[in-house]
Amino acid sequence: MHVFRIQDKSGRGPFRPGFTIKWNEVREDTANLEPFYCEFPSFNAVNGEHCGCACSTQKQLKRWFTETEYRRLKELGYKAVKLKVDRILHESEIQLIFTRKRALRKGATEIHLYA
User: Fold this and answer.
1) What is the pLDDT along the chain (115 residues), one digit of tens a residue?
2) 70 in any annotated domain
3) What span, in angstroms and rounded, lies between the C-alpha atoms of 104 and 50?
4) What pTM was computed for the model?
5) 113 and 32 in contact (C-beta within 8 Å)?
6) Is residue 68 part of a domain?
7) How many CA atoms lie within 13 A of 42 on its CB side?
8) Handedness of CA 69, 71, 75, 79 (dihedral sign)
9) Which of 30, 63, 76, 98 has the most Cβ atoms closer than 10 angstroms to its Cβ?
10) Rg of the chain (C-alpha set)
């Protein structure tokens, strides 16, 4: 199975302390996009596997990142990718948490999120 996410060349996503201010827009729907640790409070990292947050579709990913935000993220070294994953641990209408044996940067295929 495949998932879609935004990440840098190291496989790290753009939601990290002090970084979102560089690309995130103020939007009315932001309150509907809960961080994974709020939406899935029982989540625990899986020993020996690489975990990450993603979306099941490109449409979901566009809900998280506007075209303007994505353009800024690309300037900061991020890209939208499709990843093959081993397991999905939790899933909702807006996001999922997955695991894979390979590092997140390996085997990531860039996709065109916005034409």
Assistant:
1) 999 999 999 999 999 899 999 999 988 777 677 878 777 878 777 788 999 999 999 999 999 999 999 999 999 999 999 999 999 999 999 999 999 999 999 999 999 999 7
2) yes
3) 7
4) 0.91
5) no
6) yes
7) 3
8) positive
9) 98
10) 13
Q: Are 82 and 109 in contact (CB under 8 A)?
A: yes
* Counted domains in the chain: 1
8 inside domain: yes
Question: What token pair was written down for 20?
Answer: 């979102």
Amino acid, res. 98:
F
Under 8 Å between Cβ of 24 and 106:
no
Per-residue confidence (pLDDT) for residue 37, from 0 to 100: 77
SS (H, E, C) 31-61: HHCCCHHHHCCCCCCCCCCEEEEEECCHHHH
